[in-house]
Amino acid sequence: MNLKHWQLLCMVTLGAWATVAAGQAPMAESAGIEPVKPVAIALHAGAGTINKSNLDADTEKEIRTTLEQAVRAGYAILLEGGSSLDAVVASVTLLEDSPHFNAGKGAVFNAQGQHELDASIMDGSELQAGAVASVKNIRNPILLARQVMLVSPHVMLMGEGAEAFARDNGIVFEDDDYFFTERRWQQLEKARANSDPQAHFVSETPDHWLSTVGAVALDSKGDLAAATSTGGTTNKRWGRVGDSPIIGAGTYADNRSCAVSATGHGEFFIRATVARDICARVQLQGKSLQQAADEVVMEQLVEMGGDGGIIALDREGNISLTFNTPGMYRASVDANGEVFIGIYKED
Ligand code: ASP
């Protein structure tokens, strides 16, 4: 917790004690002042076979730095009293701008050597959502998904229609060159050389990881939000859409339960409606956030054969960073202001 947040908490608490001691109703209630609520944020940048042996020290350092910058960017907005929606967008755009992760600049190539990007966002206070699928040349697909939510009557736009909507709304486009990274090209070449159509999901290549990005946040009004952005899967068929832009699969937020963003083998996450299932277990079965996440990610998905993980956050500020793969790029700042950055299981 930073100084400002702590000071506010002290002021409210001391004021309440003073009025209770004087036989009056607590200050916050009598004056109609909302007590300060905890804020928290978590993000992921993909789950998969991330071992110390396949990540060199310099790359690991850069990745940890980017994760920390992204989580702090979102947290700074929350501390200033900003919304959870703005916080998740701030974190995700930073991750989309990094060449390290499979979203925006670092997106993987599809089977035609192109980048088709998916993203979605959800506002847990009103159950509003926006998503885009298979869009090309959009620098920050999460900004486009937010625009779909805010100014269109629709939840999801795809392909050329989404790109036309992007032009009408001043969304930034980039040339194909902007999205080219040598590492992703090599991954495509490897996948093309492998006759197994599932090759990009199995852990036989050292660079097997699914580095979709996402964030969940809780703001000082008690509102939850979730956002997810991806390039999908290497060598995917043209037009393939994964779980990331599907509300209820890769992304979900509902103030009555929790906010979830997922990363992993999208076909499984769609069939298991992962994000909504976790929230439903919390809301309808009274499960704790961690219990619900464990049941879905560590039991159901494992039984189905679906690799991946989730980040989740509830209104009490409980955070779950749960994955059934060897690693998941992840970061969080909890309700006490404690910063955590992790890559491997043992972090
Ligand atoms: N879930 C994404 C997809 O299937 C991939 C990932 O998480 O990296 O499109």
Describe this entry's structure for a reader.
This protein is an alpha+beta fold and 347 residues long. The chain has a single domain (3-344), classed as (Glycosyl)asparaginase (Glutamine Phosphoribosylpyrophosphate, subunit 1, domain 1, 4-Layer Sandwich), CATH 3.60.20.30. Helix content is 36%, strand content 22%. It has ten helices and 13 strands. The strands form two sheets. Strands 1, 2, 3, 4, 5, 6, 7, 12 and 13 form a nine-stranded mixed beta sheet that branches. A four-stranded antiparallel beta sheet has the order 8-9-10-11. Helix 3 runs antiparallel to helix 4. Residues 1-30 and 200-207 have low confidence and may be disordered. The chain binds aspartic acid. Aspartic acid (ASP) binds at residues 46, 102, 210-212, 230, 232-233, 242-244, 263-264, 266.
Topology:
Elements: H1 3-21, H2 27-30, E1 40-48, H3 57-79, H4 84-96, E2 117-123, E3 128-135, H5 141-151, E4 156-158, H6 159-168, H7 182-193, E5 209-210, E6 213-218, E7 224-230, E8 251-253, E9 258-264, H8 266-271, H9 274-285, H10 289-304, E10 308-314, E11 319-323, E12 327-333, E13 339-344
Parallel strand pairs: 3-4
Antiparallel strand pairs: 1-5, 1-6, 1-12, 2-3, 2-7, 6-7, 8-9, 9-10, 10-11, 12-13
Bound molecules: aspartic acid (ASP).
